[in-house]
Amino acid sequence: MFLFRSLTIGLLGACILLLARLEGPAATVSPGAAVHAAPAATAATIVDVAPGVRASDVPSLIRLAPGERVVAVDDRRVDSDLAAGVAIANRAPASGAFVDLDIAGTGGAHRRVLVLLH
């Protein structure tokens, strides 16, 4: 037993030593190269639906601004407002779940809405 513990501790120490001496990948930027910033992340809007709300009332709780429309429900593209309403209403009866909506506005603006169902 003592031999096994000594061997294990020795191997663990060797692994830690090797990891400590390991160099990460070096990042190089050539002169004149364009640097692109990542797009700013926007916080998702959360709509909490109370128990007892009918499935047909859920789409009206999202409150779309003029010119906005739902383009995806749970990361699945929808072609029209009617298809979006049907997809949301079909998910609504599942209590304790959420519906993830991607909403596109005028000028290419996108926002995310999470609808929490009780």
Helix content: 25-40%
Low-confidence stretches: none
What is the CATH topology classification name of the domain at 45-117?
Pdz3 Domain
Number of strands: 5
What is the spatial order of strands in the main beta sheet?
Answer: 1-5-4-2-3
The largest sheet, given as strand count, sense and whether it forms a barrel, is: 5 strands, mixed
Q: pLDDT average, as an integer?
A: 79
The CATH architecture of the domain at 45-117 is: Roll
**Cα distance, first to last residue?**
56 Å
**CATH superfamily assignment of the domain at 45-117?**
PDZ domain
CATH uppermost class of the domain at 45-117: Mainly Beta
Q: Percent of residues in beta strands? A: 15-25%
Order of helices and strands: HEEEHEE
Number of helices: 2
Q: What's the shape?
A: elongated
Please identify the structural class as seen in this structure.
alpha+beta
